[in-house]
Amino acid sequence: MPTTPPYPGARAPDRRRDVDAAGLRIAVWEWGDAAAPPLLLAHGGFDFARTFEVFAPLLADGGWRVVSWDQRGHGDSEHAALYNWDADARDALAVLDTIGRDPIPFVGHSKGGSVLMHLADACPHRVSRLVNIDGLPSRQRAPDVAEHERSKLLASELAGWLDHRRQAAGKERKPAATLDELARRRGRMNPRLSIEWLRHLAAIGARRDPDGFRWKLDPTMRFGGFGPWRPEWALQRLPAIAVPMLGFLASVSEPMGWDTTEEILAPHRPANAVFHTVPDTGHFLHIERPREIAEPVLRFLAS
After folding, report:
1. What is the predicted pLDDT for the residue at 236?
2. How far apart are CA 198 and CA 125, in angstroms?
3. What whole-number distance in Å separates Cα of residue 89 and Cα of residue 71?
4. What is the pLDDT of residues 178-224, one digit of tens each?
5. Closest CA to 43 of 283, 235, 213
6. CA-CA distance, 247 to 274, in Å (whole number)?
7. Adjacent-strand bridge partners of 212
8. What is the pLDDT of residues 72-122, one digit of tens each?
9. Three-state secondary-structure class, residue 74
10. In the chain, at which end, N or C, are there fewer CB atoms within 10 A of the end residue's CB?
């Protein structure tokens, strides 16, 4: 691979290891002193752990052992036969189990924030504080689904995934002739990120094949393919989150964003939750404004 172009503040992880999640190899990355108190950090969909290369070192320099991982099908983790929300939560639990049994803070961006909210709801004894970075559920993307329809959805979701998997077998993502081309493609989905950051991301998140560069992502994954799951279900469970919670919301709509607002969340806000809308910022708040997000997170974790 070509030399990774530097980006101000970016720092490669201090450690790399693998975790066996029910037979699937999950790549785990860590920043900070191995003896420091740990926190769990989850990336968003179609991303990878090293997209935290500016944000995670800021948390590590604040005295934390930051443990993140490439979700199944992403980055250096293995690809899976099927993808769904519960499997992602089980993978997160497998990583968490390698850290210890005491409750620790969870921090997640986008889909990672929602998966960790799901895990916090399922295992409240394993989380001490919860930070969600623009991964709070919205009611805008899909109609509500009645309780009695969920069992039907399970079958239809699995059948749909299997059909998609068969159709996508053998497919590859379109290669790019150069890392710069790959970076500019991602820029169409992340229009507010600088080309320098996108080049850095491409250098650490792509692999070089004989016909060009590709992101290290399972080509069978698709948007909205994390079912059976609906944002409304997470929204209904939100009030049950009992630990202190800090949420950040983007103020600029982007293709990868969820367009959740404080007004949508207001009827469902947990008693110990505080939500902030960050002005003039898109979905990737921790990349656009790493210090402005890391500082309140560190204060929240220390309070």
Report:
1. 83
2. 38
3. 10
4. 999 999 999 988 889 899 999 999 999 999 999 999 999 998 887 65
5. 283
6. 6
7. 209
8. 999 999 999 878 888 999 999 999 999 999 999 999 999 999 999 999 999
9. strand
10. C
